[in-house]
Write a structure and sequence with these properties.
Largest sheet: 3 strands, antiparallel
Strand order of the largest sheet: 1-2-3
Number of domains: 2
Order of helices and strands: HHHHHHHEEEHHHHH
Shape: elongated
Structural class: mainly alpha
Radius of gyration: 24 Å
Distance between the termini: 70 Å
CATH superfamily of the largest domain: Intergrase catalytic core
CATH architecture of the largest domain: Orthogonal Bundle
Length: 303
Amino acid sequence: MESYLSPLFTGEIWPMFSRSLNTEKSKADYYSVIRDISRYAKKDFLELKEAEAQGYFNHLLILSQNGKQSVKTVKVKLARLKSVSNFILRHSYLFDLQQTYMKNPFLRITLPQTEDYLLKKNVPSVEELNDILAKAESDRMLYVILCLMVRCGLSAGEICMLKFEDFVSDSTGHVGIEYCYRNVRRYIKLPEDVLEQIRNYIGDAEVSNSAYLFHNKRQNQLRIRDLERLYLKYLPADENPHFTLSDIRNGSAAYMLICGASPSEVADYIGIAPEWMRRFDRVIPELHKAAVDYSNIRIKVVE
């Protein structure tokens, strides 16, 4: 099988790096993943770019979905490649690479958390989402928050940071939220049923005294921990089944996928890296079998 590794890498860099490895197995494992990514990209390790590195790990994640290796193994491979690249950067002066090897292409690789894929038991069904909303009806603020999670996939952190000034309207009259994080902006279109809930909530004179849409009794920004306590007041942790706020958001994303939205569209809408959408790959077929219809989630006007 053809090797793309350069004489500089195999003859100078690898012998020097491998001295730090204690066992022959460790050396073989490191060299195997180096050779593998080089063959994948069809170029020398020293020529790899970020896009090729991410493409390689996307390929490994597909293999893991098919049961050929675990996500834990993929993460070990990433750690090994990062360490090799960091070694080259630290010693670039020894190999006359100061001007040509200036960046670790593996630093920004994104992988799913271990444990990998969502399980059906951790994604609420439509009936269970309806039950969660029904139990929260007596608290208007919590009900509106859960509507935003269920229908829009907003995270607890995004909801707690939401201000009145974040609401925008486009040229067609559609109302949404303009959310900015780390200088990246995204527009979250609001469904009419959720928008009606927010309008009714904003109509409460008590709400208008705060810059934040959701706040505590002192009119200060609602913290995530405050929200979690409020949620547990109406949906105690000892209930069976019990779903966390993260489970509810995952359910929202799952049903968007079931209803036909592409993974990239859902990732863009809820503000996560597209690579993380693979976490849904195993749970979506199971939810399909349940013949659920996301439109059956009941958002009721709470007086």
